[in-house]
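[job 0412] stage=fold_complex status=start
inputs:
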Amino acid sequence: MTELKRSWIDSANAPGCDFPLNNLPYGVFSAGEGDLRCGVAIGDRVIDATALESAGILRADPDADVLNAPYWNDFMELGRDVWSSYRARLTAMLAEGAADDIQEQIISRSVPMARATLHMPFRVSEYTDFYAGRHHATNVGTMFRGAENALPPNWLHMPIGYNGRASSVVVSGTPVTRPQGQLKRPEDDSPRFGPSERFDIELEIGAIVGQPSSGPISVAQAFDNIFGYVLLNDWSARDIQAWEYQPLGPFQSKATATTISPWIVTAEALAPFRTATPAREVALLPYLAEPGPTLYDIALEVGLRPDGGPETVISRTNFNEMSYSSAQQLAHHTSSGCPMRVGDLLGSGTISGPERGNCGSLLELSWGGKEPLTLDTGETRSFVEDGDTLTLRGHATGRGYRIGFGACTGRVLPAKA
Amino acid sequence: MTELKRSWIDSANAPGCDFPLNNLPYGVFSAGEGDLRCGVAIGDRVIDATALESAGILRADPDADVLNAPYWNDFMELGRDVWSSYRARLTAMLAEGAADDIQEQIISRSVPMARATLHMPFRVSEYTDFYAGRHHATNVGTMFRGAENALPPNWLHMPIGYNGRASSVVVSGTPVTRPQGQLKRPEDDSPRFGPSERFDIELEIGAIVGQPSSGPISVAQAFDNIFGYVLLNDWSARDIQAWEYQPLGPFQSKATATTISPWIVTAEALAPFRTATPAREVALLPYLAEPGPTLYDIALEVGLRPDGGPETVISRTNFNEMSYSSAQQLAHHTSSGCPMRVGDLLGSGTISGPERGNCGSLLELSWGGKEPLTLDTGETRSFVEDGDTLTLRGHATGRGYRIGFGACTGRVLPAKA
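[job 0412] stage=fold_complex status=done
writing structure:
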């Protein structure tokens, strides 16, 4: 475990700061009426990476502007060695003791975080969602199919995944309109069309593919191809899902919105927090075996704030609960020869821990609505209500610092009339 | 039903020609070492639409080059009125009686079809596959779940769909490598990893979304937003699918390749062949009702050619068998608020007719491998074998002409060692 790296930007050295020098996550921001630019978060400031590039102060590619764009995809295309050298040079420029003229060049090309509007940090090529949390799969399986059939027979052998909808991925802060769809309770003769009555969240971490591949790749190669991670809330309409998902899986129940946090936390920043997936009772086939620890120790929480009220933290869990890492998921994703592209986003699956208070969805937290949660305000919740703001937070903990993700938040608006 | 429109390009007037003046489908081609250009098929020639645009002879947008690109997406962005006026002007230029100088300007900007290499005609934004053929759903359901539970309870109420993988869509002629994956027969204790032994095709038609939408749209609007259609072969590994698909649907079984025909046949060219979906026993919810005929009468066939042998036509069917049109599928796709983008591709689902010889997959044609097909060579087939070339063909029939799609073909290569 590494120590805090001190920066000449004081706010980055404060205990509890999400964005110390050890982190340096990548995002896209605008300030005032300005255009969208690539930025790096440190302390309470956003460094204008597009301006550093155009001024020749810090370039990823000596010959081409890759940050003169409202996304980090072109930067990702350059590959792992460039990711690493860029980060090393930026770290040196921001470290305590950097030359005064460097400090001046950088501070004049930065804005206070409070003045920045954050946008999607990358263009999502395609979005895949997994189902790799054992507690979550067991809980949902128990509710839907009974305790004996909770875990599907394939679950212990592969990371179950399905393709999601890239066009529905939005950045933190984007309002989410309650979806409409076909609803049919078991006792109904036929379905009706109306607003979802069981609208839910899913606490996940999203992995961003930073290098393309055209055939099957190993878990080790997959681990190297992942550029970074974001928090991800896969909004889910449980009632639409229950009626539509047999036999081909979730479709419109998952297509309304998926919210991601605005900062890409790099794999390199998370390296000190690598951990192996939990012990398993069934050995994996060789193509899925971990070459070393490929999961991360990242503490996570979910807050629910009713309209006008204070927030209640409704769940606390950790990414290290997952049975399959993002690298294992990516390797499985390529096993059929499926081509992967820069900007592909892989949702981890809902991250639930062993106890009720560690669950990453309201479906589990309220046990299908049968045991509603009580909020700090005294109100209860089975599912998300209009006006509720849901916020995911996460961080890895080092010695005297943390690698934070920032907030992944969304407020639910009523269904359209 | 309209008559043949005669062209001064004689080959376009021949009976049985796929590309008469009534058709004018859009593709992307290269000739020799030349770069990729937008082209229009007529008779045995490809008109260089990129050259017509740059020379100012035929422009879609007076102010911007939209065809100076290896795809038709920018053209689609311009919208329905432009699609229509461009087509009308091109039709006039190619019609019998066009001025000699026009004929000269065009013929000098065309190449023989035989010299053209065809490429993907558009950039696929996202790919969705449906399950909207009743015969296919009943056949597969009977094999997998028994005759009583053949049709899932939701099937009569909505077009069941799932998200596919856009990165795996390839143009006709691209070889397809047999996929590997997890395989587990019911009698096996645990899965193994190896080449699919039940690799299959799915005969479908793909609809291309030509206008974006950001919330729910009606079937009428969806119909207007569809730019055109292609043939589509959704290669499927049945054994990988059987083991992976519960509970979240097909994933790696469908991610190896999806082949499309190289010419986008426009909705306008197909307009005379509109037909309503078949009578249904259960009324649809209003958001899915057809505002008028939204399906098409398109005759389809599948050919299988073993390595070195002659082709056997193994199936003949018609697109008019489908229970849900592409427009109904697109409307359903947006019902949750899912944003749609130009270049989204919607697979119709496998198109099977009422009899065995009308089935659009080998799974059905060989009844799960229990009743192998006999080819004209005397060989038998349960599923696709290495070296087999599968070809889809389709056309609508007018008075003295047809609107053809050209071939959608792919040869299967052995799995990688």
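[job 0412] summary: Chain B touches chain A through 60 residues (CB under 8 Å).
[job 0412] exit 0
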